[in-house]
Amino acid sequence: MIIIFALLLAIIQSHPVSQIRSHSLRFHPNQNIVKELQLYIEINQIKAASISTCVGSLLKCSIRFANQPEFKEINGHFEIVSLVGTISVYGQHVHISLSDSEGKMIGGHLPFYDNECIIYTTAEIVLLEHLETIYARKLDPTYGYQELYII
After folding, report:
1. Is residue 12 in some structural domain?
2. 40 belongs to a structural domain
3. Is 44 inside a domain boundary?
4. 3-state percent breakdown (helix, strand, coil) of the chain, nearest 5
5. Cα–Cα distance between 128 and 147 in angstroms, integer?
6. What is the domain count for the chain?
7. DSSP structure class, residue 67
8. Beta bridge pairs of residue 26
């Protein structure tokens, strides 16, 4: 037990905890959730944030499914079941999960460029800004994507 406690203490001490500021947002019908989120990040010069929660609904959205090169546009009435990711003025990596009128789920990578991700009723989002951290992006040669680089 003492060894486990010592290991946990060493891990905690090697990773300093940063201050967090909460941002509560509500977007409205026919707004583009992707563009509004990016605009908010840019206006507020947020250098590191995570999406804590999101509820709402969409009319259409482009999603890239697992291990697929192309994005697929989906249209209809969808509940936002989950929106998670890291986001900053330096880039983002966001995933979305949606359910249709029968409760069938669909989800994947949410692109932050050329995406008409249109809100149906609302999108209520809580961002957690990590004040002493920078989320940058760096090319990872493993698969060729810009991956998270924490400063």
Report:
1. no
2. yes
3. yes
4. 15, 55, 30
5. 20
6. 1
7. T
8. 124
Containing 39, the helix (H) or strand (E) segment is helix 33-43
Domain limits for position 68: 18-150
On whether residue 63 sits in a domain, the answer given is yes
pLDDT in tens, 58-70: 999 999 999 998 9
C-alpha neighbours within 13 Å on the C-beta side of residue 105: 6
Q: Distances in Å between the alpha carbon of 113 and those of 32, 89, 91?
A: 11, 14, 11
- pTM to 2 decimal places: 0.85
Give dist(CA 135, CA 128) in Å, integer: 13
- Pairing state of beta strands 135-140 and 49-63? unpaired
Q: What are phi and psi of 110, to 5 degrees?
A: -100, 110
The reported pLDDT for the residue numbered 3 is 64
What's the DSSP call for residue 134?
Answer: -
Instruction: With residue 103 as reference, give the H or E element that holds it.
Output: none
